[in-house]
């Protein structure tokens, strides 16, 4: 079963003892642990296989010719040395010799004890290993197993497993059949991708997958694979997945459950409101069934102002709670009672949450998820939806608002003819105070804790309660039960062993340090728990100092190639590595370009990585080597007079004879002037006119900022024109002259583009390719206005 590569298949097999579960390190999925000796044998097998496969490597091999024989031997040694490596991924075929069961697996590490193999619980169950030692009759002298009585002894031995190295093709298709009816996950793709990526290297036809999904566990039978019907590998491949019912009865049962669920689905008259997108400043009216949640999302809000959320139920006897969680890379779960960042599940009739705009939880938040949960009382007779009103407002007041349901009667003003009753604290006229007190003391009672007044015979007073541990109070038994359950009942985290003192403590744990908290990994871009079984704890020093979650710290250890320097860098170090490249980019000096206004080359030459190849004086004209080539002579000329004469002859030749190229645009050339329309058909430039135009150039020849005008090749001239256009794109004035000293530079032009020199260098490095030149500029050039070092 070859993967289709040119390398021969690896052949290796052995028989090992299966370690008992208590002696096996924790393994997941189809992972196994082999002894270090197995790795040595595998490398040796890979070398032997390659050597045997390499029959003839040289085209002119003659065993009787010592030269060709030596060349053939050297070629075989180089081939064996270069290909002495194990296939990736390294997969194995496991066989239980007792029952003949077969399954494929991937390697975790080579750290098992000698002649032993460690299996995950999945492989142990699939292969039918019990994990118990078996007793055998062993002959005392020969050590072989015997039957019946005789000279033997009873020895306990481990179960045996046959391991074969076998390469598998990359999978393209798998068919899964659910073993139970009613499976309905929100996102099958994300669930399967995360579970298979973290736990499995291979898939074997006929094996059963147990996929956890929250409180549920989905069991699937693998019932079809492609391109190999027996097994496939899942590494570095795109897999098409089909989920089909096991039989018609299961399909009908699943459909029946989905229909029943749809009758109370969100948006129906009996169901909760569907939720959706909310805007700040709106008042949302909706309903929620007890025990269910209605989820809203706020995608846009003013991040410079505080936000206030207020939830009120139309029926004061019914209760609904309000939860909010900022949605971002660090928070992926919807707000719930046991998992939220902001929440109000008090016994007040109005639930309010005020979030300050400076709250650190809002950093990097893409949206705000708001959840309204209908509280489900255990003794409730009606399960009708709870009507509610949700108001969202923005305020500039940074003080935290509070709601107090107690009557604020002490602050009311008392008139000159009024007196305050000592029992109900109401303002009563003095002339009727005696009658009022007789009635009030006989029928009303004042709570000494919250100063609320109740009728002595009312059910509110009979059920009125105050918590001895905190200021909470209420007027019915159900609110007391809710308060005790949420605030004074220990709770266990479903994702770890954490024991919380109450529900708010559990919610804080599950949104901060809980290993099962869902995040969006910045490296694998998958929604995963922030800490896997093998990751470091969330409070470890390395995790705290790095600012990454344990999963990101582990996943970021994978390497990739830097697109700028081609070095192999760890993913978690890539940001710092790119900052070094950015510092190098800002510290680079602008390259020197050719003084010739028709040339698109640099003087010193620019490397692929932005480095200047030669930093020295090239010639006395300040032009590139290509432009100076026709003017070069090997003679001593300290005053530059001979060079000046050669330049003069160069100009005269251009004016009088021309370069003979129909694409020339040099105004100091006969052909260029004709192409530019400066000369009419049949018109020529006389020697006198030519000398008059040449004289100012020769007088300023030693001024390196003064341009020269030599004819160049077509590619260089086109690059110069493209460079001028690129430099003008980011300039405020949009003007760049031919020598790169236009208004687009300096204090006048502070655009976001690149200087003319960098544009010339980019096009020179990329051979005139405009798109690649733009990419080169982004990686290696400094923009206008960026501070250098």
Automatic annotation (TrEMBL):
Biased composition (Low complexity): 729-738
UniProt key word ATP-binding: yes
Domain Ubiquitin fusion degradation protein UFD1 N-terminal subdomain, residue spans: 170-245
Extent of Polar residues compositional bias: 1-16
Domain DUF7590: 271-396
Keywords: ATP-binding, Nucleotide-binding
InterPro entries the UniProt entry points to: AZUL_sf, CDC48_domain_2-like_sf, DUF7590, Ufd1-like, Ufd1-like_Nn, UFD1_N2
Pfam families noted in UniProt: DUF7590, UFD1_N2, Znf_XAF1_N
Record-given protein name: Ubiquitin-protein ligase E3A N-terminal zinc-binding domain-containing protein
Keyword Nucleotide-binding: yes
Region of interest (Disordered), ranges: 1-28, 259-284, 728-750
PANTHER family on file: FUSION DEGRADATION PROTEIN (UFD1), PUTATIVE (AFU_ORTHOLOGUE AFUA_4G04640)-RELATED (PTHR12555:SF15), UBIQUITIN FUSION DEGRADATON PROTEIN 1 (PTHR12555)
Taxonomic source organism: Stereocaulon virgatum
């Amino acid at each position: 079963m070859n993967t289709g590569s040119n390398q021969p298949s690896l052949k290796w097999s052995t028989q090992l003892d299966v370690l008992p579960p208590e002696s096996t390190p924790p393994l997941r999925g189809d992972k196994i642990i082999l002894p270090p000796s197995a790795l040595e044998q595998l490398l040796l097998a890979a070398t032997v296989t390659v050597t045997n496969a390499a029959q003839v490597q040289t085209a002119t091999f003659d065993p009787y010719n010592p030269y060709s024989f030596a060349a053939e031997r050297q070629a075989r040694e180089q081939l064996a040395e270069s290909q002495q490596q194990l296939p990736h991924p390294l997969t194995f075929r496991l066989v239980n010799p007792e029952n003949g069961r077969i399954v494929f697996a991937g390697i975790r590490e080579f750290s098992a004890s000698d002649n032993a193999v460690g299996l995950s619980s999945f492989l142990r169950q699939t292969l039918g290993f019990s994990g118990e030692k078996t007793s055998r009759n062993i002959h005392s002298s020969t050590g072989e197993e015997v039957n019946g009585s005789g000279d033997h002894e009873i020895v306990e031995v481990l179960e045996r497993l046959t391991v074969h190295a076998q390469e598998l093709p990359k999978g393209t298709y798998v068919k899964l059949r659910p073993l139970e009816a009613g499976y309905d996950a929100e996102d099958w793709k994300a669930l399967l991708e995360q579970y298979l990526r973290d736990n499995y290297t291979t898939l074997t036809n006929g094996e059963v997958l147990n996929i956890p999904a929250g409180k549920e566990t989905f069991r699937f039978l693998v019932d079809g694979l492609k391109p190999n019907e027996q097994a496939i590998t899942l590494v570095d491949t795109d897999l098409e997945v089909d989920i089909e019912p096991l039989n018609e009865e299961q399909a009908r049962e699943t459909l029946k459950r989905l229909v029943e669920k749809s009758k109370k689905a969100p948006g129906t008259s009996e169901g909760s409101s569907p939720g959706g997108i909310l805007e700040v400043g709106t008042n949302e009216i909706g309903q929620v069934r007890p025990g269910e949640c209605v989820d809203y999302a706020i995608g846009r809000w003013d991040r410079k102002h505080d936000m206030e959320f207020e939830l009120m139920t139309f029926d004061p006897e019914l209760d609904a709670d309000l939860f909010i969680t900022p949605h971002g890379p660090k928070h992926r779960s919807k707000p719930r009672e046991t998992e939220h960042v902001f929440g109000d599940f008090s016994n007040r009739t109005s639930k309010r949450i005020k979030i300050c705009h400076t709250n650190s939880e809002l950093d990097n938040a893409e949206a705000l998820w708001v959840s309204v949960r209908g509280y489900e009382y255990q003794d409730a007779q009606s399960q009708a939806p709870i009507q509610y009103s949700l108001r969202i407002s923005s305020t500039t007041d940074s003080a935290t608002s509070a709601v107090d349901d107690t009557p604020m009667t002490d602050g009311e003003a008392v008139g000159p003819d009024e007196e305050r009753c000592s029992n109900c604290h109401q303002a009563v006229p003095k002339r009727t105070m005696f009658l009022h007190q007789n009635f009030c003391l006989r029928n009303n009672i004042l709570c000494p804790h919250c100063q609320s007044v109740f009728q002595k015979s009312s059910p509110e007073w009979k059920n009125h309660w105050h918590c001895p541990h905190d200021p909470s109070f209420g007027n019915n038994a159900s609110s007391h039960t809710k308060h005790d359950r949420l605030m004074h009942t220990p709770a266990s985290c479903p994702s770890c062993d954490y024991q919380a003192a109450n529900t708010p403590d559990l919610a804080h744990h599950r949104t901060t340090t809980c290993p099962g908290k869902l995040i969006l990994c910045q490296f694998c871009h998958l929604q995963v728990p922030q800490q896997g079984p093998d990751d470091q704890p969330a409070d470890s020093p390395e995790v705290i100092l790095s600012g990454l979650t344990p999963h990101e710290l582990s996943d970021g250890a994978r390497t990739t190639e830097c697109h700028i320097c081609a070095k192999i860098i760890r993913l978690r170090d890539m940001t710092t590595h790119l900052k070094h490249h950015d510092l190098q980019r800002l510290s680079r000096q602008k390259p020197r370009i050719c003084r010739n206004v028709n040339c698109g080359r640099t003087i010193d030459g620019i490397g692929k990585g932005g480095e200047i190849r030669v930093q020295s004086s090239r010639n006395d004209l300040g032009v590139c080597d290509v432009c100076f080539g026709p003017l070069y002579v090997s003679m001593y000329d300290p005053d530059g007079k001979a060079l000046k004469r050669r330049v003069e002859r160069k100009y005269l030749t251009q004016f009088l004879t021309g370069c003979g190229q129909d694409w020339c645009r040099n105004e100091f050339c006969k052909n260029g002037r004709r192409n530019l329309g400066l000369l009419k058909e049949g018109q020529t430039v006389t020697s006198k006119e030519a000398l008059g135009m040449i004289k100012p150039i020769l007088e300023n020849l030693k001024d390196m900022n003064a341009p020269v005008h030599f004819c160049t090749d077509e590619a260089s001239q086109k690059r110069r024109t493209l460079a001028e256009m690129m430099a003008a794109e980011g300039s405020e004035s949009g003007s760049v002259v031919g020598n790169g000293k236009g208004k687009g530079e300096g204090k006048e032009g502070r655009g976001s583009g690149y200087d003319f020199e960098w544009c010339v260098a980019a096009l020179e490095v990329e051979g005139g390719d405009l798109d690649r030149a733009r990419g080169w500029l982004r990686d290696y050039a400094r923009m206008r206005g960026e501070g250098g070092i």
